[in-house]
Amino acid sequence: MASRYNAADIEAKWQQTWAEQGLDKTSEDSSKPKFYALSMFPYPSGNLHMGHVRNYTITDVIARVKRMQGYRVLHPMGWDAFGLPAENAAIDRGIHPAKWTLQNIAQMTQQLKELGLSYDWDREVATCKPDYYRWTQWIFLQFLEAGLAYQKEAAVNWDPIDQTVLANEQVDAEGRADRSGALVERKLLKQWFFKITDYADQLLADLDTLEGWPDRVKTMQANWIGKSTGARVTFTTENGEPIEIFTTRPDTLWGATFMVLSPEHPLVETLTTPDQADAVSTYQQEAASKSEIERTTDDREKTGVFTGGYAINPVNQHKIPIWIADYVLMDYGTGAIMAVPAHDQRDFDFATAFRLDIVQVVFPADAEAGDAAPLETAYTDSATGILQNSGPLNGLTVAEAKEKVIEVLEEKGVGTAQVNFRLRDWLISRQRYWGVPIPVIHCENCGAVPVPEADLPVILPEDVELSGRGGSPLSKLTDWVNVPCPNCGTPAKRETDTMDTFLDSSWYFLRYCDAKNDQQVFDSAKVNDWMAVDQYVGGIEHAILHLLYSRFFTKVLRDRHLYTVDEPFKRLLTQGMVQGITYKNPKTNKYVAPTDVVDKENPVDPNTGDKLEVFYEKMSKSKYNGVDPKQVLGKYGADTARMFILFKAPPEKDLEWDDADVEGQFRFLGRVWRLVNEYAETVGAGEQPSIVQADLSKEEKDLRRAIYTAVKEISEDIDGDYQFNTAVSEMMKLSNALTDAPCKTSPVYAEGIQILLKLLAPFAPHITEELWSTVGQAESVHYQSWPTVVEEALVVDEITLVIQIMGKTRGTIQAPAKATKDELQKLATESEVAQRFIAGKELKKVIVVPGKLVNFVMAK
């Protein structure tokens, strides 16, 4: 009698064995095709959540299948280890960020190993370690040398009480600092930027080459880059000072009735008249306290102040007022816009609020000149509209007018055609401690001087006081800050900003190709060999920034001649969220923990008695709906957790956690356990004998057909869109076919047992390894070749033919699959089933449906 399936007995054993054998080390056999499988690496928070488990399990199955299919597979893991949470932990708990982070890495590494994930741990990277960030700094110097890194003043969130810069996530919905409660201000600081805008065209155009990416993600990136075609136009103040704007609707220039500048625009001070000075200054202070999101929200009330100054419209010489408004941002476009309220809804709302002129210049095609009624909303039809009140553009369509106006502007010397992008340069400076020090030294004589490559890494000092107050912690370390200039030797100061952590994650996939190289960032030949990543798996929340920055880095380093790869990721899978059952009181809007709900059929708030809403929502601590992976692994084991996650929903769809379905997968693995152990006990282990299809009995042929149907279906599910849920269903069917098969001593049955274990191995690696050894196999199941379809086994020799009398099924018979209609009719007529009903009776007709049925219709 076989023992019961107990995951705890086998999983730790095989994990240790695999580690000792080096089972998951990356093969260097260049005769094999390569496959690079990668999950987005995690922030080491200390504990895995179910979203992690799902992401990593999906990628692990892909990697394991590819190894069995004969690929050399690169499947690494690492840690996105710099960032604000570690710094906050240091402040709150009095523990150094490095110690907190490394403890979390150790804890999460153990959790990952308990899941049976086939990582090559020899290639592990942690972005907070000097052997990694040395090369992040080296890459920064590459950008600097290429003219793609520069400094300029930019607005930051400033806490006036703690006297420190805040990240966006440290500012609450009311615009207050999360620690001090102070109303956050916007303040200009000199900061470092990367010129991602230099690559805007490439980043947009090359989206068309990413055939393995979801259309949704490509659309999100295209919208973020935001290419628009229009004109750059120069207005002038009454004193002749130029104000440049960009517009996608230069055809409406004759309808521009006012201008709006950002409150931070450098011309505001000179434009503002004495009688408007107080109002403008007050408004500038109010705008400085608002976040960018607050300032640009479409549905908020429009605010603004007249400067007292005027501009001259270059096409008709009309004098138009200049306002400031916070919805115009200084670091987007030119920081100034022309306002055409008749044809832009935001301008229309602003003009209506402040009673500014509205002049319509585009009309419906059938409108008579001069007969338009006052507009109640902006007229934005640019497809069929006709220009009026527009001098040389009158009578033209919008499309014609856009071309004509460029000629007019260029003749006057006041404008030209231009392509603009919504994308802005990447601000990489962070006034924080726990990040990569920027390798620059500031010298009064030489300016910003790069740290010599030989002096890298610039080590992040550990003797630092973290309080969350008073600016960058690094700026207070005088011994670290004050250094001689590398160029001239005079006293100079280190840059005290650290890098945005998105830099760390924008090239880690390149380092995995040559993770232990201490002489160079990586070997170019190794990167050209392994890149691009064949399958990248991660959340949709990274669709824009991380993926865009990674594409940008890949192109810049290609242009620095470090490799020849154009794009980092061939295929992208954005897995759905893991959702838990959620209870919420609709009256108080408070969540209730499932453990506090006594009656799940009639859930009520234990404190108020109110009826609770019940729904599935993304797992979250604040909603009390999370499931701890440690508890699931402790009760069921890693294989069951993996199987449930793969079976419950297709990878790209959201997954609803259900304890009953987890139990169902546990029972399935238990059935496989009994099936294989009973086979081993009754038949015994041994080599797989050769099988001659023609010599098989009907039962053996039926079973072999079920075996290779499973191979065919599962292979298609895995090689296509990764439909792991239907693949698991096919395994269940195969398990049932083996259980029900009468020929348990046949070599076909032995073949089926071995193929079931091979098919199941990538999904449930521990139980299959144990059962593989149970049937006498010495070499790991994970070293076996993926089963291939035996076409002759799929051929149906016989069919089950249904016998009907007057349309009612009366029984079935077996018939040759290739029998003709006449042969089928003869077999059916002579069958015992039919003779019971038709013997001695007159037939009106016989209907034969080849491969399915024969229907006898009796004469009345």
Helical stretch tally = 26
Uncertain stretches: none
Strand content: 15-25%
Tell me the span between the first and last alpha carbons: 62 Å
Shape: globular
Mean pLDDT: 93
Q: What is the helix content?
A: 25-40%
Number of strands: 33
Q: Sheet bearing the most strands, described?
A: 7 strands, mixed
Roughly how many Å is the radius of gyration?
A: 35 Å
Briefly note the structural class of the backbone.
Answer: alpha+beta
Quick recap of the structure?
The chain is 35% helix and 20% strand. The chain is built from 26 helices and 33 strands.
List keywords for this structure.
alpha+beta, 33 strands, 860 residues
